[in-house]
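Exercise 7 asks you to align residues with tokens for two separate proteins.
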Amino acid sequence: MIPKSNELRIEVTTRCNYNCNICPREELTRKRGTMSLGLFKYIFDKINSETSQYNTLTLSGMGEPLLDETFDDKIIYAKKHNYTVIMLTNGSLLTVDRFKRLESIGLDSVRVSMYGNSPETYNIVHGIRNTDSFQRVKRNLTEISKIKSRTSLLLSYVVVDGCNNLTLESWIEYWKDKVDLLEVWRPHNWVNARSYRSVQQEKQKTCGRPWSTPLQIQVDGTVNMCCFDFNGELHLGNVKTQTLEDIFDSPMFKKILKHHISGDYKDSGLICGDCEQMNLDKSDVMIYSSKYDISERVKKLSSTYSDINITNN
């Protein structure tokens, strides 16, 4: 059973030039590196030879995609196959000229994580010391918002109490009429690597991802269950050597599916039972969206905004 999703997510690199305090990079045990263009093409072609269900590619993961020297070539390759292409970035390398290039090769959407509205708050949350980074990123994004034509510009802000919460309102006011979508979130826990959200006693049986997760491929070709599983503890297989049918017929996927159907994770050994994505009450997840009703937005994927299906169990 391949989960019903039209989204393929590929992590092109695990390298990053930021050290955000909401990101558990210090706990990343997977090998650091960048996916070669050859491997990307092999994986992309192999998946599309096995199924026609995917038509959207999201370039994201535990690294900064613009550090990948073959990044543009990967976009071009996916666009030749009529894919919608989305990227997530911290924006530090997104100059106006870089954006123009990405737009010219067909990038459909870029979502920028910008977690501060002053040099001090920006540097604290993003874990950097460069005093001009905030002004440079703000200046570039402001200019990009004026010249963009076909590529959507989305901005995301994560509120960390005691770090950047006091500058939130002015951030929203500045950007709300400049970009295509503006959203403000509270940070998640990366399952058990952080403790920003409480893990509630009252939970859903499932988060719905075994039925509707995007195909999550890490930099080495391994497939894990979801993007919150940053170290690949829910390892399903490897697309370099296995078919999708084999991967989603694996003992690990069957085990995950079994417990998401029953809702019982005790003694399962799965990280799912400790994940705040299972919380029934999601009122503490999101603060603001310029486009969506918040109660509905938290039920959608962060990239394509399609619904997470929790009814197929």
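Second protein for Exercise 7:
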Amino acid sequence: MRSLHGSGLVLGYGRERVVHGVDVELEPGRVTALIGPNGSGKSTVLRSLARLHALDGGIVELSDDDGALCDAAPLSARDFARRVTLLSQSRPHPSGLRVGEVVAFGRHPYRRRFAALDDGDRAAIAWALELTGIAAMVDRPVDRLSGGELQRVWLATCLAQQTAVLLLDEPTNHLDLRYQVEVLDLLRELADGHGTAVGVVLHDLTHAAGVADRIVLLHDGRVRCAGEPADVLTAEALSEVYGLPVEVEHDATTGRVRIDAHVGRGSLARV
């Protein structure tokens, strides 16, 4: 089991800084949700943890076999991909391939160039297909899949990579209610049953409250607050960050959180 930490992350696009000294810790067996309004830096932070966005400052560290944190930068792309995988928002739409062939892409970090799948590869692919509920679609052309079905295929591809750290950027996009719940349940299963360190960007605050052990609330590229859901999802913090009146109710018995934003022509004026 491995952890992934980003410390003092400073990130930008050209000369424009968009993330200012953010700390994020992803620990084994825990789901950490990054939330915040559009433009707050959530996806940029996640991409930097996946080494897909260059750091202007700070460090990304990955624990080694002994649990000690080490700079992730010197790792080769192959070695890093055996430890960390990312389900991004933007993915290619494969054409002319079947579901099983796409999911097999997740085994590339373990295979020599042009090498055939071995028994370990096939077992990992079968496990990922089963876990995401698409085993019955293994021979279907991806061109005939709905957006939600294709989303699950890409998630299975990430799982076939069998990394200790899983990063997901808005994984419930394009999914109907049932599949949204199934994906969130899967994240909990990966954390609770497999010790995976999960980092996920979510817009739906109710989803974040239900799935996360820890929440990081970002605002203007900085951490507004971080901690357990009940400590972060407060009316004061959410109203400030989202710029409209928000009410939050915590049910002490069930642990559920209810979040209501005031909707109406005068909502923004009341903040």
